[in-house]
Design a protein that fits this description.
Layout: H1 2-42, H2 49-69, H3 72-80, H4 86-104, E1 108-110, H5 126-149, H6 156-172, H7 179-212, H8 217-244, H9 249-256, H10 272-295, H11 305-310, H12 313-335, H13 337-348, E2 354-356, H14 359-387, H15 393-413, H16 419-472, H17 478-509, H18 516-548
GO cellular component, one term: membrane
GO molecular function, one term: phosphate transmembrane transporter activity
Protein name: Phosphate transporter
Length: 549
């Protein structure tokens, strides 16, 4: 009877899961078929419009995979720290990703992704170029899909780079690739996570040292929380301006110049100095606002770490929204670059390294990302937020601020970085810092335990010696036999104590706040991304070419 009941429960769970999977698949197919139909009907008078419609279908598939994989880095820490529920995080990320793409997404995109291949190798023959871009787009989407299934957060940019490189090599040989650019991209595998990890760890250590480790945490929080939150505001405003305001910067300048005592010189894009100054002014306002809120009598603060953690919840919600907006504005256009390239080649009949992105192409990217995040994003959000290391609000805050500051520093130094690698590096950084901070306590505990073993062994030796003496004694009396029994009991207790202490030392040495298996899986996925996407794109190019020729 028990077995039948268990079987029925398993059957119910399986049916529910399969029903959910079919629903997700249904929404995905509906969106992709809708994009295919719209593209085909709206470009009916253009030759090769079927190519463009199929490319739009692949672009929709790619956009959903970006939402399922890449966006998790923006909201994962906030969800893992319980500053946001999973549902709320998905809604915020979807809205701000779409807003970033549609409002601040670039009008012109570098279709060949950072100049990794030389398009002059195609000459005036647009067909191989179109096939190569289709192969690149599909290969990047398939790789992202596979990585999401494996719960491995990978770089969308690197997936597209690998796809374009592989398809380019298949179309025109190895000489088409700019290997110096590829070397920089490979360098970002190391630069991005290390920079993100170090900055996140430094902020976490600073917060712990100035607030968490203090006896009077309430007084320390009132003094330092406004300072840390204002630094976050400064870095995020600067990050958003330099990465998300490129398209709408002229209109932004016009608006800012209407404010008294503000005068900004008109330019095509914001300079770092202007971004820093605007960020600094907003940070001052944030500092005094937070200082008033934290110092208010209405704010119930307790002298606990949990109470301090709660103060970072609202900044984390803002960080999730702003990171999503910046990602939508900066990365979506790049990810759908191959689709823009195909659209430009089909419509204009030529090849260009830079192409305007029509609104419908940008909409495919924006809506596809939002849908992919909602349908398939939870897997990677949980991986980033809780399956690498345990996060609370302070740790998640450190990761978020590290993401913004790392991008700012890297952009000024001209270093290639990946937002995915930065965020995951930040997660690693706070986890390893926790291990390092606890290392001294662990070492102290181990030394105390070792000393305890030495003392227990001395007692054990003394008991054994007394036992041997009594057992060798002739003419034992009742008290001697009673003492021998007591000695056996004491010896057993001491042996058990020594064994327990040794086990405790072994467990103390194994303290790990970062799951090593997760590290291996993620780093392997990072290293494999470019070559895997490249090989897949080359195979797809030859397949498409074989069908068309």
């Amino acid at each position: 009877m028990m077995e039948i009941s268990t079987f029925k429960r398993l059957e119910k769970v399986a049916l529910k899961k399969s029903g959910t999977d079919f629903t997700r698949l249904g929404f995905s197919l509906f969106f992709m078929i809708g994009v295919l139909t719209f593209s085909f009907l709206s470009n009916g008078g253009i030759s090769n419009n079927m190519f463009l419609a199929i490319a739009a279908l692949i672009g929709a598939y790619m956009a959903m995979n970006i939402g399922a994989n890449d966006v998790a880095n923006n909201v994962g820490p906030a969800v893992g720290s319980r500053a946001l529920t999973l549902t709320t995080a998905i809604i915020i990320a979807a809205v701000f990703e779409a807003a970033g793409a549609l409002i601040a997404g670039g009008e012109v995109v570098n279709t060949i992704k950072s100049g990794i291949i030389d398009i002059t190798a195609f000459g005036d023959n647009a067909d191989p170029f179109i096939w190569a871009m289709m192969a690149a787009l599909l290969a990047a989407a398939l790789w992202l899909n596979f990585a999401t299934m494996m719960r491995a957060p990978v770089s969308t940019t690197h997936s597209v780079v690998g796809g374009v490189m592989g398809a380019g090599i298949a179309a025109a040989g190895f000489s088409i690739v700019s290997w110096s650019t590829m070397a920089k991209i490979a360098a970002s595998w190391i630069i991005s996570p290390i920079m993100g990890g170090i900055i996140a760890a430094l902020f976490l250590y600073a917060i712990k040292k100035s607030i968490v480790f203090k006896e009077d945490k309430v007084l320390a929080a009132k003094k330092y929380v406004p300072f840390f939150v204002s630094i976050m505001a400064w870095s995020f405003v600067t990050y958003i301006i330099i990465k998300g305001f490129k398209k709408i910067w002229p209109q932004t300048v016009e608006f800012l110049n209407l404010i008294p005592l503000v005068s900004i010189e008109m330019s095509d894009k914001p300079t770092m100095l202007v971004a820093l100054l605007i960020g600094f002014l907003i940070a001052i306002v944030v500092y005094f606002t937070v200082k008033y809120r934290v110092g208010s009598n209405n704010t119930a603060l307790e002298n606990t770490k949990a109470s301090v953690n709660a103060l970072f919840t609202i900044p984390l919600i803002f960080s999730a929204a702003l990171l999503s907006f910046a990602h939508g504005a900066n990365d979506v256009a790049n990810a759908i670059g191959p689709l823009a390239a195909i659209n430009d080649a089909v419509v204009n009949g030529g090849i260009t390294s830079n192409a305007s992105i029509p609104l419908w192409v940008m909409a495919v990217g924006a809506l596809g990302i939002a849908l992919g995040l909602a349908l398939y994003g939870p897997k990677l959000i949980k991986t980033v937020g809780s399956e690498i290391t345990e996060l609370d609000q302070i740790r998640a805050f450190s990761i978020a601020i590290a993401a913004a500051i790392t991008v700012i520093i890297a952009s000024q130094l001209g270093l290639p970085v990946s937002s995915t690698h930065i965020a995951i590096g930040g997660v690693f950084g706070v986890g390893f810092l926790r291990e390092w901070l606890d290392l001294n306590d662990v070492d102290k505990t181990i030394e105390e335990e070792k000393q305890s073993i030495i003392e227990d062994k001395e007692i054990l030796n003394a008991l054994n010696a007394e036992l041997l003496t009594l057992e060798a004694k002739e003419g034992k009396i009742q008290e001697d036999y009673e003492r021998i029994v007591d000695l056996y009991k004491s010896i057993a207790i001491e042996k058990s104590q020594i064994k327990s202490t040794k086990k405790s030392i072994k467990q103390a040495k194994k303290i790990e706040y970062v799951k090593r298996e997760a590290i291996k899986k993620i780093i392997t996925a990072w290293v494999v991304t470019v070559p895997a996407a490249a090989v897949l794109a080359a195979m797809l190019f030859f397949m498409i070419k074989g069908i068309m020729v």
